[in-house]
Amino acid sequence: MAEIPTDIFDIIIIGAGIMGSCAAYEVAKLNKKVLLLEQFDLLHFLGSSHGESRTIRATYPEPYYPPMVIESAVLWEAAQSAAGYRVLTPTTQLDLGPSHCLSLQSAIRNCSPDSLPATIYDSNPTEITGAFHLPDGWIALSTPLGGIIKPTKAVAMFQSLALRLGTVIRDRAVVVAIDRIADVGIRVSTTDGRIFHGAKVVVTAGAWTHKLVKMVTGRDLPIQPLHTLIWYWKIKEGFESEMSPAAGFPTFASYGLPYVYGTPAMEFPGLIKVALHAGWPCDPDSRDWTMDGDGMVGRVAEWIERLMPGRIETASGPVIKQTCMYSMTPDEDFVIDFLGGEFGKDVVVAGGFSGHGFKMGPLVGKMVAEMVFDGEVRTAARIGLDMRVFGLGRFEGGKQGNVKEFGEQVESHVGQS
């Protein structure tokens, strides 16, 4: 008979990025004994939950994301109230693109006067800002739910909230095994010989999710890490103040190719983030840190000159370059499901957030907590979300996941550098 350890956690969460940290907080609120493990130092810059900004927007071609973002916005406010400081600066959101773009048209249809009111412009949206010039045949969609999230600060906020409620956090804890032990539960082992036991386990390992699940079960989850780049550009003299959140400048996204997105000038004085929603397939443990993305920089510079003429210096390229990672699924939808097999409903995987999940971290954390301890997601039912869209079953038999009528948002396999 296996020796029963005296120190058993109700839940062990593997991965302390935004998803794991939010899950730890939500589970701790249920008066559960929580262990949060991180393979690197806390608040590291090697994954997907760091840096100066993420955007929050509720405009999506898929109908299931707007209710999730709207619910997440409520949870962001509640967490900030509990912490006593802010990590999210609200703005409007502006989406641009050719009027015939199926993705943009679908995003417009998903707006609602009650939940997400929208204003459509078929000429330059000067009521919002004079910075954008719409090419012929383009339209703009303005919605009130936008904003800039400080990611590293946000992760730290949720970790501190979880710590207040008794969560145990251990960093530099590289997981090498997850096993089911009879009469004990789930055993989690790390490279330094430490062993932890939990009734439940949640895997929120970001770009390492595929590797971890493969090691534990032999199962190949279709989650491909991408190495991505973020750029900050110098605003031309005289236009700095009009591109700030205080001036009403929006977070923005441009549909079609290239898919460009950006934030108001806030993170660095006199600079604005304008980047490409794209990246290169990578091994998260052996990324090419020398990659400068010059080919992609040129595409963004061309977009700036076309859509924001005369406002941003492009000749010398971006002033600041930063790196990040996406964890892509074939359909760009999340994976939030029970791992199954020998682990049944005792292990949940939450990954594959495909470059657009950070904003929904608080909701994902809440849904995971409900899955683990209730076996169902009450919050999803309340907002009309069918969790099957995030299920692992959608990839069975070599399927590519959820079928959509519009094209990819992320250029997942860019060849040029």
Describe the structure in brief:
By secondary structure, this protein is α+β, with helices and mostly antiparallel strands. It has helices at residues 18-28, 65-83, 102-109, 151-164, 209-217, 294-307, 361-374, 378-382; strands at 8-14, 34-37, 54-57, 88-98, 119-121, 138-149, 168-170, 175-181, 185-190, 195-203, 224-234, 251-254, 260-262, 271-276, 280-281, 320-328, 335-338, 347-351.
SSE series? EHEEHEHEEHEEEEHEEEEEHEEEHH
List the uncertain runs: 412-417
Count the strands?
18
H/I helix tally: 8
- Biggest β-sheet, characterized? 10 strands, mixed
Instruction: Please name the CATH topology of the largest domain.
Output: FAD/NAD(P)-binding domain
Distance between the termini: 57 Å
Strand content: 25-35%
CATH class of the largest domain: Alpha Beta
Pfam families: DAO
Cofactor: FAD
Keywords: FAD, Flavoprotein, Oxidoreductase
GO molecular function: flavin adenine dinucleotide binding; sarcosine oxidase activity
Describe this structure in words.
With about 425 residues, this protein is an alpha+beta fold. It folds into two domains: about 10-50 and about 155-225 and about 330-400, FAD/NAD(P)-binding domain, CATH 3.50.50; about 90-145 and about 225-330, D-Amino Acid Oxidase, subunit A, domain 2 (D-Amino Acid Oxidase, Chain A, domain 2). The chain has eight helices and 18 strands. Strands 3, 4, 5, 6, 11, 12, 13, 14, 15 and 16 form a ten-stranded mixed β-sheet that branches. Strands 1, 2, 7, 8, 9, 10, 17 and 18 form an eight-stranded mixed β-sheet that branches. β1 (about 10-15), α1 and β2 form a beta-alpha-beta unit. Mean pLDDT is about 95; it is low at about 410-415.
